[in-house]
Amino acid sequence: MLVLVINCGSSSVKYNLIETSDGSDLCKGMIERIGAVTSIVKHQPTGKKQIKDTRVITNHTDALQEIMNYLLSPDSEIISSPSDIKAVGHRVVHGGEMFKDSVLIDDDVTEAIQQAFDLAPLHNPPNLKGIQAAKEHLPNVPHVAVFDTAFHHSLPAHAYLYGIPNRLYRRYKIRKYGFHGTSHYYVSRQYYKICNKPVDQTKVVTCHLGNGASIAAIKGGKSIDTSMGFTPLSGIVMGTRSGDLDPSILFYIMEKEEIPMNSLHALLNRHSGLLGLSGYASDMRDLIEEANNGDRRCQQAIDVFCYKIKQHIGTYTATMNGCDAILFTAGIGENSSLIRKQSVAEMDYFGIEIDDERNENVKPGEITKISTDSSRTDIYVVPTNEELVIAIDTAKIAQAKSQSPWV
Length: 407
Ligand code: AMP
Fold this sequence. Notes:
Elements: E1 2-8, E2 13-19, E3 24-32, E4 39-45, E5 51-55, H1 60-72, E6 87-92, E7 103-104, H2 107-115, H3 124-137, E8 143-147, H4 157-160, H5 166-172, H6 181-192, E9 203-209, E10 213-219, E11 222-226, H7 248-257, H8 261-270, H9 273-278, H10 284-292, H11 296-320, E12 325-329, H12 330-335, H13 337-343, H14 356-360, E13 368-369, E14 378-381, H15 386-403
Parallel strand pairs: 1-6, 6-8, 9-12, 12-14
Antiparallel strand pairs: 1-2, 2-3, 3-4, 4-5, 7-8, 9-10, 10-11, 13-14
Helix pairs in contact: 1-3, 10-11, 11-13
The chain binds adenosine monophosphate.
Adenosine monophosphate (AMP) is lined by residues 210-211, 239, 283-285, 288, 330-332, 335-336.
């Protein structure tokens, strides 16, 4: 089934056109700086040259129009009619407590996504805009929401409750939700295919290390804990997000710097993390380069990042009473041998031993074992593919809808 996968940010739309029968990507692309004077448009048809251009694109509906125009243009030769697209899958960041699985989007689902605006003010509003825009252009196909939070619905109460009055959980649903669920799900399933062990006996730590970063403990195929929490701000240090803090620091900063709540929000979400620590960059490649040139603060930012990863691996190994495998994924996890090595250094007490040569020779896009043969815990680099998970879930739900006697 040909599925269009849409991932909308506040000023961007990413898309993939995926044939789910074989998982192939026909085309992918991105429109950035929506609403700015000029927007950047990129289309990457598989096996062909990338198209990069600038246009005036004022909103998400126009962005979807641009995508459809490109996919339908005789030059691109990708699809010949909108009806070639059989379903649309939407990444939705926050599903709250309501959504344990992906769902067909109807009015009730739209309302529930809207109700979670408070929980993910940066993500859910643009996600909904994307849904509305895509429905305008493709009104006759099923639209499916795939939630970043859904895979972590299996967290037990002792992992998701915070130490605050319980009425705040009951009244406002303040609890740990966890994010990057589709990525943690995908890489753990890739590992199960090669591990020669029944899934219900496996204990895995997945490290999704990108601009946003999170770590999950997956026992018997189910997420039982993860580093992100009520929002994607918590957990390990990220590109521009602080990760976990002593909550008292927030009151202290507000008082000392005399700043209001929204400035504190921006400080923690956009000016902290690797960027804040280094005072130089949020991008790991830039930090590694400057650290190699002798910049002390860039080196410190890298050290803090790796220390937090190591702490979580240790914590989750204790939580699960063991760990069969550590899986590294996303931009940093897949590409940086240095970060992988530093994050698992000196963990032989846990039976974790990285093989330097294997770690240095990981081929992009391939699942690669990077632990020594004597390591009690396997370490793998596993390329993630969140879009494929979204496409497959969407196809399943669309198919079920088409076979339902009630439609
Ligand atoms: P993502 O959010 O998954 O796209 O990951 C983005 C992050 O991956 C950025 O911090 C990049 O600097 C980092 N990254 C990509 N390639 C490399 C590389 N070769 N070495 C270190 N970091 C990388």
